């Protein structure tokens, strides 16, 4: 039996399918989460913590009614390339649009931009968000560049979660981002 999260939206872009987490996503996630590639999202993690983190990602859908979408190429929908989407864990000061590319071969192809833009549009249009930020490690130059490419601007007055250094990038309202 295949168990999936029912009632979750599926988004589509020119090149990508974006869906909720499902069975089969753990190994691609764990490959990234246990590697140095996870350094900007609290890693590298051991496999036990990677498992818990994926459970957190999946549970977010149940408890919030939205969450990070897993994205894959339309021509290979069974291979997760990364995740992007609306995110708001308990205790965070604001709604976030986040992204992470899992597969090294997916880097530099614009997939994260395409996925983040689609999920940001979804958050404003379908979830009714009026504002969104992205919390970014100050050393993560690629995510900073992506936030700026998405039209987000640094907001040094905004609160951020946790005690670690973090930059806050505020996304433009939908009418500005079009």
Written description of the protein model:
The protein is an alpha+beta fold and 178 residues long. It has one domain: Gcn5-related N-acetyltransferase (GNAT) (Aminopeptidase). It contains 5 helices and 8 strands. Strand 3 and strand 4 form a beta hairpin. Helix 1 crosses helix 2. The N and C termini lie far apart (42 Å). The mean pLDDT is 95.
CATH class: Alpha Beta
- Radius of gyration over all CA atoms, rounded: 15 Å
Question: Average pLDDT, to the nearest integer?
Answer: 95
Note the main sheet.
5 strands, antiparallel
Overall outline: globular
> Uncertain segments of ≥5 residues (pLDDT<50)?
none
Terminal-residue CA separation: 42 Å
The SSE order reads EEHHEEEHEHEEH
Number of contiguous helices: 5
Strand fraction: 15-25%
The CATH topology label is Aminopeptidase
Structural class, from helix and strand content?
A: alpha+beta
Q: Looking at this structure, what is the CATH superfamily?
A: Gcn5-related N-acetyltransferase (GNAT)
Residues in helices, as a percent range: 25-40%
- So, CATH architecture? 3-Layer(aba) Sandwich
Keywords:
178 residues, 5 helices, three-stranded antiparallel sheet, globular, alpha+beta, five-stranded antiparallel sheet, 30% helix, Aminopeptidase, 20% strand
Overview in brief:
The protein is of the alpha+beta class and 178 residues long. The protein has 5 helices and 8 strands.
